[in-house]
Structure formats: C-alpha cells, structure tokens
Amino acid sequence: MATPDELPSTTATTPGARRVLHWYDFLCPFCYVGQQRNSILERSGFEVVALAFQAHPDIPLGGRAAGERSGSMIRLVEEEARAAGLPLVWPDRLPNTRMALAAAEWTRHNAPQSFPAFEKALFAAHFALGEDLGDRSILDRHSVEAGIDTAAMHRALDDGSAYADLDRSEAFAKGLGVRGTPAWLIAGRLVLGLHPREQFEQLVQDADAGLGRDALRNWR
User: Of 113, 17, 125, 103, which is closest to residue 52 (Cα–Cα)?
Assistant: First the structure.
C-alpha cells in the first residue's frame, strides 16, 4: 500500500460526495467505452475521480502500428461503443500516451474545471479522430478548447512536474494491485477490467455507503 506522502491529491467537487477512484489510459478501448460505466456511478450519486495510468509503457515514443483487429473482444468493444453512443474508428497506430496522461493529470490538479472536457476530448482524439496523442500540437489544440493555460501546461511538462503527478497516480494504483486499465476502487473494492453493464450496475447498487474509508482516508 502506498504511504500518505505518495498519494496523488484529489479534490472533491461535491461536498460530502462518495468517491470512486478510476484509473484509465487514453489508448485503452475498454477505458473509452468505460466512460459509460462512469456515467452509471455518477447517476448513482458517486463522484468519480479519474486518475491517469499508462497501461502500455512498452510502446515507443514514436508509437507503433496497431496491427489487425479482429475477434470477440474487438466485437465486444464495438458493441459497447454503439450502446454508449460513442463513435469508434480504430486508429492505425498506437501512441505512447505518457505525455498525454501527464498533461491530463496535471490538468486534474491545476485546472480541475477543465479536466472533464480535456479528458473526453483526448479519448475522442484517439478513438474517433485518429489523432496522435504523442504529438504535443494535438494536446495544445484540445487544451485550448478546454480552457487550459497551455503555456503553464508546457512548463509543467518541460520541468517534469506533470510527469511526477502521473508517477504518483501510478504508484498509488500499483500499491492497491492495479496492473492495467480500466480499474475502479468502489467502496474499498478493487474492480479490474470492463465488466458487463448489468453486473456493474449491481455492483454499484451493492456498494457500501462508507465508500473507501480505509483506502481514501489519507486523500485530500
């Protein structure tokens, strides 16, 4: 378990809200359609704290070809995307998302009002628009549209502080047993992977009202 000094900070936007922690990566198709699972949580009165986690650090900085996509898991993602009303155009290349995740985690800390739009835009950039999230100009365009101080974001990326935010998010996740995305911490229970909507809804209904006391007591 991570120590208090290692925990990334969070700020509840709703006083007294019950929190769920959610780890994501922008190139993870299960995270993309998992946005619908977050909607289930929010409709049930939970506050979802989205935390960056690079699921594939093995991808080189220039990205790599995606390869052929086929099989039952691909069909499942496509069905989930249609059900959630999310456009899905499989990109030809997979980017290294470390910079994009660091920019998003920095935004969550420093411009929380802009974070939801920025996060949603970067998911769409990869899965709907085919844009390269390893290209800083792409991040810049979406950051401007989300109302982020792009110059401040650049400084944080260049001086390493944005990457330190990402490292803290990942260290906390790994201390809890997270090894990939998507993952949720709901009422102290770690939920790994994209579960069927009905099962997820039941899990939410059964969630303890004393959400995450043990795991979240040191968060701010």
Answer: 103
End-to-end alpha carbon distance in the chain = 17
Report the C-alpha gap between 143 and 117 in whole angstroms. 9
Give domain 17-213's CATH architecture.
3-Layer(aba) Sandwich (3.40)
To the question of pTM greater than 0.85 for the whole model, the response is yes
Domain residue spans of the chain: 17-213
- Walk along the chain (220 residues) and give the pLDDT tens digit of each residue: 333 333 444 443 444 458 999 999 999 999 999 999 999 999 999 999 999 999 999 999 999 999 888 899 999 999 999 999 999 999 999 999 999 999 999 999 999 999 999 999 999 999 999 999 999 999 999 999 999 999 999 999 999 999 999 999 999 999 999 999 999 999 888 999 999 999 999 888 887 544 444 444 433 3
